[in-house]
Amino acid sequence: MKEVILSGDEDDYDVFLQSWEPSESLRHATLPRNLNDPLIRDRFMNGGIYTGSVIRSEYASGTKAMDVQEIVARGHDFFRSKHKEWAAAFGDYVLGRGVPNEKLDAFVTRFSNLWVDGTARRQASSEMLAIKASIRDFDLLCCPDTAGCFVEETINDCIQPLFTPKEMAAVFEANNGLIDALIPDYIDFLGAEAPWLS
Fold first, then answer.
1. CA torsion sign, 159 to 149 to 116 to 103?
2. Cα–Cα distance, 119 to 189 (Å, whole number)
3. Whole-angstrom Cα distance, residue 22 to residue 8?
4. What's the CA gap between 198 and 81, in Å, rounded?
5. 48 pLDDT higher than 60
6. CA angle 172, 88, 97 (to 5 degrees)
């Protein structure tokens, strides 16, 4: 609660307006990435609008489950049906650009096992730090004047990268190619349910 200095002439509404702070759920719902998300909006409107907290699942190893509402809203079936095809295309592209198979396997395994398992594993595990170091080195090579400008949490220079800058470029290119090729199909799949159309 904000500290408020009162003159003595304020009514209850004045006090409220001067001391009110948005709840965690309101701050979450109004993040730019969430503004047009119908699922986030519904959760916000059906939860504690003024005092509600954002509900986060406790860490548990293994596959993460979404509720039925989120599976539909996110078009999960689209991704599930395309996964093998996309994974094969991604792997073929990256391996074809000279990335060793063991590095590709490490990259895929780390993201699937560590990235989704909470901040500590995502931000601080040695495996993920090696991927971040790969991005750091790629950034330094390609954009030395602006390298690190968009990095919230920098990592120590002594951390060894998983990929060389050339290998990291291949990963980025493969990812960009998939996005460019497949996002139109995803938009078609969502149809009128697309968050940006609501």
1. negative
2. 31
3. 25
4. 25
5. no
6. 45
CA distances from 165 to 133, 136, 142 (A): 10, 9, 9
Q: Give mean pLDDT, residues 83-96.
A: 94
pLDDT at 189 over 60: yes
Domain ranges of the chain: 1-56, 74-197
Q: Using N-to-C axis directions, what is the helix angle for 126-142 and 165-190, rounded to 10°? A: 100
Predicted local confidence at residue 141, as pLDDT: 92
Alpha carbons 42 and 70: distance in angstroms, whole number? 11
DSSP 65-102: ---HHHHHHTTHHHHHHHHHHHHHHHHHHHHHTT--HH
Average pLDDT, the chain: 81
pTM of the shown model? 0.69
